Amino acid sequence: MLISLYIKNYILISETTIVFGPHLNIITGETGAGKSILVGALGLIMGQRAESNTLFDTKSKCIIEATFDLDTDALSHFFQENELDYATNTIIRREITPSGVSRAFVNDTPVTLPLLKILTAQLMDIHSQHDTLAINKASYQLQVVDVFAQFENKLIAYQEDFKNLQNLTKKYEEFIQLQNATLREQDYLQFQYNELVELSLNTDAQLAELEQKVATANNADTIMQHLENAADILDQEQGIMAMLNILHTHIHTITRYNPNYISYKERIHNCIIELKELLQDIIHETEHIHIDPLAAQDCQEKLNLIYKLQKKHNTQSIEQLVIMRLQLEQQLLQIQNFDAEKASLERQLHEIKERLIQQANYLHQVRIATQPVLEEKINIQLASLNLPQALFQVNISNTESLDMYGNSSLQFMFTANPSLPVQELRKVASGGELARLMLAIKTVLSEKMDMPTMLYDEIDTGISGETAIRVGRALEHIAQHKQIIVITHLPQIASRRGQHLVVEKNIKEAVSKTIIRTLAPADRSKVIAQMLGGNDISHTSLQAAIEMLQ
Predict the structure, then answer these.
(1) What is the pLDDT of residues 476-509, one digit of tens each?
(2) How much is the pTM?
(3) For residues 141 and 153, what is the distance between their CA atoms, to the nearest angstrom?
(4) Is 406 left (phi over 0), alpha (psi -120 to 50) or beta?
(5) What is the CATH number of the domain that holds 51?
(6) What gap in Å lies between CA 158 and CA 404, rounded to an integer?
């Protein structure tokens, strides 16, 4: 139940607090006074998006704060699941800054708008004049039957499976597209893979070794010539080795005179040994340089292929080509597993479709069983709302395909005149008839819905006289076991037993402000009289207002 609503700096309201009664709360006011502001403020509490241009004072933030009495522990699990502090008196607050930033809180804990919508949808139902038109939509009509049937858990289970079917169908379609595209490229993928396998290289060190072999083969003559020249320089009669031996002799001769020269002799000796080893290595290399033209050609061709593949795959190293080879290998393995994966997906699709058909058939049968009871209850309500000859029917048929709600096609049928056959509701019902039918539906569903608060915004559109009296009586009856907030322009409804709030516009110094005040019992007769005869209250209208209130 909604205990109170605090509004600060919202549209034409500077600041106000509204306290609601537990049963019928009636809100009246002149056209343009700002009754819709109250609906807008509650809409923000219900999770609607906020706009910065709704600020009364553009330099201050807007605050909407609603206090709800949660007289049941039914929601405690929801609070615990979403890490919210549970309290019997729960406060929901929305704030809008001048910059347009909007924030929502539940008992001072920040929450997202989707979460806020889920919570408040269990606390309050707002019916606006626009919502009356929704009664013509097939989705709303189906929702009415389903709420009355009270198989919410079964429907939720079906819808979860239906979403799984949609996801699985999408996955299957994407798989088929991938399969077709991959199969078209299979030969090319195999060709690319074979090219990389033929390299037989896994590291850049192997590439460097191959490049060295090719360079040696391509420059064998030059290498041989320079090695032979180097050997000659070392081992000729006047070469480096001969000169070092002479040098060694000279130094050896003088070591007898000064032992310090022994180190020179040793260093020269070491050089002679090192150069002898170098000479042997060079001679060995010249003796073993043998170029196989075919092997050299193979190395060159392999190197050319590597360079070609690096350019083709836009890679800079052998390691990157190895990664490419592994990726191609995975794609080829995937192709080999296509049939098995396709069969698995098709099996899953078949199983979930079979399960959905069974669930949908169950939902359809429950709807058919619900149909006569719902029709009877709504027709009873229509009669009480001054439509005694009206006939409401629900046509339910089975569809071949499944959708989010099963396999039922549903249509509301109506006639207000017994001499005319029932037709589609949208074709025959007037605005006043639609409003009363909607109230009849809400009245019937209120017995099934655990909805503590219901707000009706101009449910009285298109009615007057005796019909208005009966609508007011119906609202008062619903308010015996639920909190009802009704915004009305009809005195027949405004005079029903309950708390009466009036919305007024005050213009001072060219600034308009909306004021909402709760009427004392003594003041109600004046307001009702104004609704009957205008601002100039006559004795007759005042007397009529007093009689209506009594």
Answers:
(1) 888 888 899 999 888 888 888 989 998 888 777 6
(2) 0.65
(3) 19
(4) left
(5) 3.40.50.300
(6) 8
